[in-house]
Write a structure and sequence with these properties.
This protein has 2 domains: 230 residues, SGNH hydrolase (Rossmann fold); 60 residues, no CATH class. Helices cover 47% and strands 14% of the residues. The chain is built from 12 helices and 10 strands. α1 crosses α9, α5 packs across α7 and α11 runs antiparallel to α12. The longest helix has 21 residues.
């Protein structure tokens, strides 16, 4: 029988030399796949902030988010069913009144800027090169918020447009965050665009992403290639046959860790996962000495306090029952 590696093509990304670690904070920005990976990182105890403005799929809106102002948000308000948001924001950022929306935007903007100031790495996931513009104002929209389709025009971004927006974004980043940037293309299929237009979009994004690696400190992680060219089977997709399944996302996430995590943190990750599994187990009988030992081991782990706190609470609750 042929060895497993001869029965499939395997994507072998170039490693960025341990950019991700427990002693560093990071940020993930972009499409829903950035959220998928970011949530897994947080579950494993890594310090990171995920999409303060919600998921952003096209690169112009994503790169423009860093300089977004309250005046721009106010000028692009959308009201629907008693909820206010903006064509420049995801529906995660909303308010019951225009003033409440602006207050929420101000809060998320503060989170974004504060997290970027602390970040020593940045991961960017590009989702689509198709964009929609408001026929009334010419505004390029981040989200259409279920407004009538006839209100918008649709067009494909060029590589040049993406790189111009990227240059402005890159120059505005804090120096520390600019040193370690991982760019990837979301493996999610945008079925509403049609398969041919989805492929065209991903091709534009792929060319742009590889051009972006010419900037200092920028590396490419092949998420879409792992799903499309290595796994390449609908069993690795969810029921909608567009989003990667949980198993596929787990595989990409593990490859991301192999690609980006500092080798010295591998043992810390194993220990943290072991403690997390123990803490989340609901025992019938509590061995006080065993739980106290686990608490001591948790405090000794070199992980962020935000990662320790939920496990500490679980372990303490089990101890109280004992």
């Amino acid at each position: 029988m042929a060895p497993l590696d001869t029965l499939r093509l395997q994507v072998r990304p170039l490693a960025p030399e341990g950019w991700l670690g427990y002693q560093s904070a990071g940020m993930l920005l972009g499409s829903c796949f950035a959220t998928e990976i970011g949530q897994r990182l947080q579950t494993d105890g890594f310090g990171c902030t995920i999409n303060p403005y919600g998921n952003i799929f096209n690169p112009i809106s994503l790169f423009g988010s860093l300089s977004l102002t309250a005046e721009q948000v106010e000028a692009s308000l959308v009201g629907r069913d008693g909820i206010y948001t903006s064509f420049l924001l995801h529906s995660d950022v909303w308010g019951a009144t225009p003033q409440a929306l602006l207050a929420q935007f101000a809060h998320q903007r503060q989170r974004l800027l504060a997290a970027l100031d602390e970040a020593s790495w940045l991961a960017i996931t590009l989702g689509t090169a198709w964009v929609y513009t408001d026929n009334e104002t010419g505004l390029l929209c981040t989200n259409l918020h279920k407004q009538p389709a006839a209100r918008f025009g649709r067009r494909l971004l060029s590589v040049e447009e993406i790189l111009q927006a990227w240059q402005i974004f890159y120059d505005a980043l804090p120096a520390t965050a600019r040193q370690r940037i991982i760019v990837t293309i979301s493996p999610v299929i945008h079925g509403r665009d049609g398969l041919a237009d989805n492929s065209l979009s991903k091709a534009v994004l792929t060319v742009a992403a590889h051009q972006m690696t010419r900037w200092p400190g920028v590396a490419y992680f092949p998420a879409q290639e792992i799903v499309r060219d290595e796994l390449r089977d609908y069993r690795f997709y969810a029921d909608d046959m567009q989003h990667p399944s949980a198993q596929a996302a787990d595989i990409v996430y593990q490859r991301f860790l192999d690609y980006a995590m500092a080798p010295a943190d591998a043992e810390t990750l194993r220990n943290y996962r072991s403690l997390a599994a123990f803490a989340r187990h609901r025992p019938r009988l509590v061995d006080t000495a065993q739980y106290q030992a686990k608490l001591t081991a948790l405090e000794a782990l070199p992980v962020p306090e935000a990662a320790k706190a939920p496990l500490r609470t679980l372990l303490a609750a089990h101890l109280a029952q004992g």
